[in-house]
């Protein structure tokens, strides 16, 4: 869930109309009930039902007070306390019931006495407690049921979107496997067509083909031996050396005992590529890349250092390209590890992390 506070969605026009209809229906039914219980015996049923003054006197005012008293309670339990558990919100709603009943009853009595409309008296006043309480429970019961319905609809929409996203991810993964496989075969075809005397070109095409083959294999597994990952990085750097020639120096320092350690595939190459592309490529004299992997306190630790131009704004570096950003996300999600960017001495950048 987002760290931002969830905003309440305002009521739609249709929801407001349904609320108005709900109150009108209940008020009108109460209006009919009052007539059949002897109110206005001297007035015919037809005239009684269609007389707006009678409607306001018998039920309209009372239900309008219900509406006004319901607004702050609705706002409290459905907006302000929305993050509370359903149990606690229902308890709060029940706790507001006496306030709702007594406040609407007393205000109704004051207004009707002032207007000399009259109201129930004696033991009959119990109906001005029972009916508001019953209406209150029905009203908020419907509101909670409607909220539950909307929440289920929202979940169904989210589940549909997640299924669609999963399908798209699955298709993207299939394409990610097909593309390297296709290119791998194409490189082999090109390599076979290159004349034997162009041995260096044939070797570079073969290395590039191996890179795509490793990428294809990496897309089908979660972990690979460190030996395979380093071999992939070496072939990538060999191709870069063909461009940089003597301007690029490479040093890989890893104990033989660590070569069978399991690591995520395609973990080091984006970091090494970052050093070449952003650290060394702009330097006429070139530079060096040093990869140091060792084990300490039960963790496999990595340091990739270069003698390039370095990075002044290290926080912003994760927003400039996908290599550092994606590697940081992979490490955080799988190992709860942090990707550190440090200044190298005397110049350049050092990247550190641990598995």
Overview of the structural elements:
Mean pLDDT is 77; it is low at 1-9. With 355 residues, the chain is α+β, with helices and mostly antiparallel strands. The protein is rod-shaped. It has a five-stranded mixed beta sheet, with helices on one face. Strands 1-3 form a two-stranded antiparallel ribbon. It has eleven helices and seven strands. It folds into two domains: 13-164, no CATH class; 221-354, Heat Shock Protein 90 (2-Layer Sandwich), CATH 3.30.565.10. Helix content is 63%, strand content 11%. α1 crosses α3 (52-80), α3 packs antiparallel against α5 (97-115) and α5 (97-115) packs across α6. It has helices at residues 13-36, 45-50, 52-80, 86-95, 97-115, 127-193, 199-218, 226-244, 269-280, 317-320, 322-335; strands spanning 224-225, 248-254, 262-263, 287-296, 299-306, 340-343, 349-354.
Amino-to-carboxy terminus distance: 27 Å
Mean pLDDT: 77
Spatially, the strands of the biggest sheet line up as 2-4-5-7-6
Count the beta strands.
7
Radius of gyration: 37 Å
Secondary structure category = alpha+beta
Please, how many domains?
A: 2
Note poorly predicted spans. 1-9
The helicity comes to: 55-70%
Q: What's the story with the biggest beta sheet? A: 5 strands, mixed
Sum up the overall morphology in one term: rod-shaped
**Total number of helical segments?**
11
